[in-house]
Write a structure and sequence with these properties.
Strand content: 15-25%
Radius of gyration: 16 Å
Number of domains: 2
Bound molecules: zinc ion
Largest sheet: 4 strands, antiparallel
Distance between the termini: 40 Å
Structural class: alpha+beta
Number of helices: 6
Strand order of the largest sheet: 5-4-6-7
Order of helices and strands: HEHHEEEEHEEEEHEH
Shape: globular
Length: 175
């Protein structure tokens, strides 16, 4: 049984891979009703991640609004999405802003972030973070997320910084 968050992650992956998908196709891929897919696409559309089209959806070409924390434009490579209990999603430009939003929101449920090296969407609580690398991609101090420790270590060799989990990344930002 897949959870709604798993499905959202997969939907984004499918759209990244093939550009667009029909509701029918997504409902069949997940074995759920098209109503369920409708609701999930609505949430993703509200968060500015997808654009609903007649009978389907595509990835939004540009986000309607910038980072919910600092207002910067959001790159798909570093995006961090905080899901609130209310169903609302807040998008941030990078893990720096995303983790700040998440740690200040009382009703933050779960977060997604992009793997900086590979660009796909991963769970923020399972990500490996590079804290304070020399390569300043977005906000300072820099916090970048990776799907695997191996990738993070590879990046660290070239650009420095410290490896950490989500809790350590939040602590790092608050010091
Ligand atoms: Zn930001
Ligand atoms: Zn940023």
């Amino acid at each position: 049984m897949t959870t709604s968050l798993d499905r959202e992650k997969k939907i984004i992956e499918i759209l990244q891979k093939q550009g667009s998908a029909s509701i029918q196709e997504l409902a069949e891929a997940f074995g759920v009703s098209s109503m369920t897919i409708h609701r999930e696409l609505d949430k993703l559309a509200e968060a500015g991640i997808v654009q609903k089209k007649h009978g389907g959806a595509a990835l939004a070409t540009q986000s309607p609004a910038g980072c919910a924390m600092c207002g910067k434009p959001i790159s798909e490579r570093t995006v961090f999405i905080v899901q609130l209990e209310s169903g609302e999603q807040k998008r941030a430009c990078c893990a720096h802003c995303g983790l700040m939003i998440q740690s200040h929101a009382k009703d933050a449920q779960q977060s997604l972030t992009a793997d900086y090296l590979r660009g796909h969407i991963i769970s923020a609580d399972q990500a490996v973070y590079i804290l304070g690398s020399e390569l300043t991609i977005c906000c300072v101090p820099s916090v970048l997320s990776f799907g695997s420790r191996q990738d993070a270590e590879k990046f660290q060799k070239g650009f420095g910084g410290t490896l950490g989990n989500m809790r350590e990344a939040v602590e790092y930002l608050h010091h």
